[in-house]
Design a protein that fits this description.
Number of helices of chain A: 0
Largest interface: A-B, 22 and 23 residues
Distance between the termini of chain B: 35 Å
Shape of chain A: globular
Strand content of chain B: over 45%
Helix content of chain B: under 10%
Radius of gyration of chain A: 14 Å
Shape of chain B: globular
Strand content of chain A: over 45%
Structural class of chain A: mainly beta
Mean pLDDT of chain B: 93
Low-confidence stretches of chain B: none
Helix content of chain A: under 10%
Largest sheet of chain B: 7 strands, mixed
Oligomer: heterodimer
Number of strands of chain A: 11
Order of helices and strands of chain A: EEEEEEEEEEE
Mean pLDDT of chain A: 93
Radius of gyration of chain B: 13 Å
Structural class of chain B: mainly beta
Largest sheet of chain A: 6 strands, mixed
């Protein structure tokens, strides 16, 4: 059973456009929702994260929108650049003993110049 | 320089051989994790350890073994019982009070 589902599976955006990646989760106990960015042959790096007490968090060109009632959260990349081309993973976990991150399958973003 | 190191970066193994992947961290994190990454599969948890001398199976532990004798080190052994070991292996660590996981650069294992 996949607890975190990402969509779309891949995304192609023109330079300067907005990239939007969506995630849906099932476990209502989740209370921490990070996005990771991974370049080919490298380990993932935390990009931005949100907790359910806020509906939106912005860091530079990256924004997370969170909808608790719909159990969905999304990543928006404004003014997308070719350097943003990477694989993006959403994840979710709960705060507590033995908690583990549950990852989505990832989406590949290509930003065309 | 604080961080997580994994070695080697590339590893080739013949079928039937065991191989051990190294993971070291100097972040003083309590928890450490091993993931396997295959194309289109995302990150799948193999084993994790939240304290020295203790570890738990993840979602795909069959054919793998780990040890946690030191806080800084969490080596993963891929045994000959793992039927399809060719993959990209990622190690991560996490502080005791916090949800963020920090990843190493990965080891790409290829079985010939």
């Amino acid at each position: 059973q996949q607890q975190v589902k990402q969509s779309p599976q891949s995304l192609i955006v023109q330079k300067g456009g907005i990239s939007i990646i969506n995630c849906a989760y099932e476990n209502t106990a989740f209370d921490y929702f990070p996005w990771y960015q991974q370049f080919p042959g490298k380990g993932p790096a935390l990009l931005i994260a949100i907790r359910p007490d806020v509906s939106e968090k912005k860091e530079g060109r990256f924004t997370i929108s969170f909808n608790k009632s719909a159990k969905q959260f999304s990543l928006h990349i404004m003014d997308s650049q070719p350097g943003d081309s990477a694989t993006y993973f959403c994840a979710a976990t709960y705060t507590g003993a033995n908690s583990k991150l549950t990852f989505g399958k990832g989406i590949t973003l290509s930003v065309r110049p | 320089d604080g961080g997580i190191t994994q070695s080697p970066k590339y590893l080739f193994r013949k079928e039937g051989q065991n191989v051990t992947l190294s993971c070291e961290q100097n972040l003083n994190h309590d928890a450490m994790y091993w993931y396997r990454q295959d194309p289109g599969q995302g990150l799948r948890l193999i084993y994790y350890s939240q304290i020295v001398n203790d570890f738990q199976k993840g979602d795909i532990a069959e054919g793998y073994s780990v040890s946690r004798e030191k806080k800084e080190s969490f080596p993963l052994t891929v045994t000959s019982a793992q039927k399809n070991p060719t993959a990209f292996y990622l190690c991560a660590s996490q502080p005791q009070f916090g949800n963020e996981q920090f990843f190493g650069p990965g080891t790409r294992l290829t079985v010939l």
